Structure formats: C-alpha cells, structure tokens
Amino acid sequence: MRLDIVTIFPEYLEPLNVSLVGKARARGQLDVRIHDLREWTHDRHNTVDDTPYGGGPGMVMKPEPWGEALDSIIESGSGSGDSGDGSADASGDGFDGAEAARPVLVVPTPSGKPFTQQLAVELSEKPWLVFTPARYEGIDRRVIEEYGDRLDVREVSIGDYVLAGGEAPVLVMVEAIARLLPGVLGNAESHRDDSFAPGAMADLLEGPVYTKPPQWRGRGIPDVLLSGHHGKIARWRRDEAFRRTVENRPDLIHRADPAAFDKKDRET
Ligand code: 6GU
C-alpha cells in the first residue's frame, strides 16, 4: 500500500518511523511518503493561509498550494504503471500501477464522517491513500470540490472533540489501517476478535486479559482461566465482554444483534 501525507508539520509524522508502522515500512509492506505543503508555495514567506471570506476568527488554508501538491502527487502515480519511483509493487501485494492511478483522498476534519473499524477495513483494501491534514480552520472548500470530481474523497473525523490539526488523526488512522494489512501483524488471528471487528463477539468490547505470575500483590487469576475447559473459558470471556460493554458503551448494546444475547445477558 502507498500512503502520501501532505502537511505543514512533516516532523509531526515522525512516529510513523516507529513500531508497527515503522517495521511495515522497513519491510516494504507500506510505502509512506511525507510531503511539506510549503514546497508548493511560491512567495518569500511560503504562505499557506489567509483570512476567511465572510469574516470570522482564524485563518483558512489557501487552495493553490494544495492544488499543486495534490496534482503533483496524483500525477506521480499515473501513466508509467508503477508508483513513479522505480520501485514497482513496493507493497508486495501483487498490485502494480493501473489500479493505483487514482488514490482515495482522505481529508481529516472534525466535520467529517466518523472513522470506524469498518472504514479502516475498507481503506486497508485500497492500494493508495492520500491524506491532507490541515491546520487553522481548515482548507478552502473548493479543494475538496475539485478533487471530489476526480477522486473518491472521504472527509473523516476521529471523534467528537476538536484537535488543533489533522496530523494526530492521520497517525491514528494510519495505525488502524496498517495493522490490517496482510503480514503486518505477527499473527493474522490477532485482530479477528478485536473490539469493533465486524462479527467479533457480536460487537462487544474485549474483556480483561491476564498473564503470569499467577499471584501478583495478592491478586489471583479467575479460576475458569486455569480450568483448561475451553467451553467454559469462551463463555466466561463472552460474559465479561458483555459486562464491560454495558458499563462503558451501552450504545453498542442497543445496536447489536439481539440474537447474540441470551437469557443470562438479560438478567445482567
Ligand atoms: Cl480529523 N481533525 C481535527 N482538527 N480535529 C478532530 C478530528 C480531525 N477528528 C476529531 N477531532
């Protein structure tokens, strides 16, 4: 998978060199290219913002640098049949060019649709994503319109709170997407029953986990986990997941399939 990120704070994205995403890049499973938006400015001060039409507080990101940046990035992936850097099929997934000629454009904004596990799965299946994290009050609307005519554009929010810019949301989204790529997580099973994985425990949150030692500061392990009885362990895990979901995310219970619940749940 190829990811391009256009930002005025390239250093904000340094965590992408670390841990799971950093290792996926080093292994060639992820081709991440970080671009400084100011490289597509032409004035002495590398201006990327201006005052809003209609008045109001804050500044708005000017359309011209974004237009030049996105045209240049999109152009780099079309025509030649590879990513444009001589490294055909850097993702190693058999994908090589033609279908990547058009990236999906992911626009982080608190006004976007919610970023969910379902969207992470959908985006993880794309060969090429371009992220446009903005600062200030956001990007001139005409940029989103312009590329909406040519590309699949997704305006996405990571939650109901306001951040100072889209860089932290990009870190969040890239990690959620990268761990779903084939071969990136050590064990392909390990995201099968993640909280929020489709079909996982009928959409319940994950329950508590334990490891050695068997006693720590006078606290033991639930007996059932030491019983070796796989049926009882599965039932216990499901009950704990249900309990935690009722406590922390009752909204998920009402959304879940009633067939997933039984008499014991209704007594909780
Ligand atoms: Cl994607 N951007 C900003 N600036 N704030 C947010 C957000 C995005 N998602 C939640 N809050």
TrEMBL record:
<dbReference type="InterPro" id="IPR016009">
    <property type="entry name" value="tRNA_MeTrfase_TRMD/TRM10"/>
</dbReference>
<keyword id="KW-0808">Transferase</keyword>
<keyword id="KW-0949">S-adenosyl-L-methionine</keyword>
<dbReference type="InterPro" id="IPR023148">
    <property type="entry name" value="tRNA_m1G_MeTrfase_C_sf"/>
</dbReference>
<feature type="region of interest" description="Disordered">
    <location>
        <begin position="71"/>
        <end position="95"/>
    </location>
</feature>
<dbReference type="Pfam" id="PF01746">
    <property type="entry name" value="tRNA_m1G_MT"/>
</dbReference>
<feature type="binding site">
    <location>
        <begin position="158"/>
        <end position="163"/>
    </location>
    <ligand>
        <name>S-adenosyl-L-methionine</name>
    </ligand>
</feature>
<keyword id="KW-0489">Methyltransferase</keyword>
<feature type="compositionally biased region" description="Low complexity">
    <location>
        <begin position="85"/>
        <end position="95"/>
    </location>
</feature>
<protein>
    <recommendedName>
        <fullName>tRNA (guanine-N(1)-)-methyltransferase</fullName>
        <ecNumber>2.1.1.228</ecNumber>
    </recommendedName>
</protein>
<dbReference type="InterPro" id="IPR029028">
    <property type="entry name" value="Alpha/beta_knot_MTases"/>
</dbReference>
<dbReference type="InterPro" id="IPR029026">
    <property type="entry name" value="tRNA_m1G_MTases_N"/>
</dbReference>
<dbReference type="GO" id="GO:0052906">
    <property type="term" value="F:tRNA (guanine(37)-N1)-methyltransferase activity"/>
</dbReference>
<comment type="similarity">
    <text>Belongs to the RNA methyltransferase TrmD family.</text>
</comment>
<dbReference type="InterPro" id="IPR002649">
    <property type="entry name" value="tRNA_m1G_MeTrfase_TrmD"/>
</dbReference>
<comment type="subunit">
    <text>Homodimer.</text>
</comment>
<keyword id="KW-0963">Cytoplasm</keyword>
<comment type="function">
    <text>Specifically methylates guanosine-37 in various tRNAs.</text>
</comment>
<keyword id="KW-0819">tRNA processing</keyword>
<feature type="domain" description="tRNA methyltransferase TRMD/TRM10-type">
    <location>
        <begin position="1"/>
        <end position="254"/>
    </location>
</feature>
<dbReference type="GO" id="GO:0032259">
    <property type="term" value="P:methylation"/>
</dbReference>
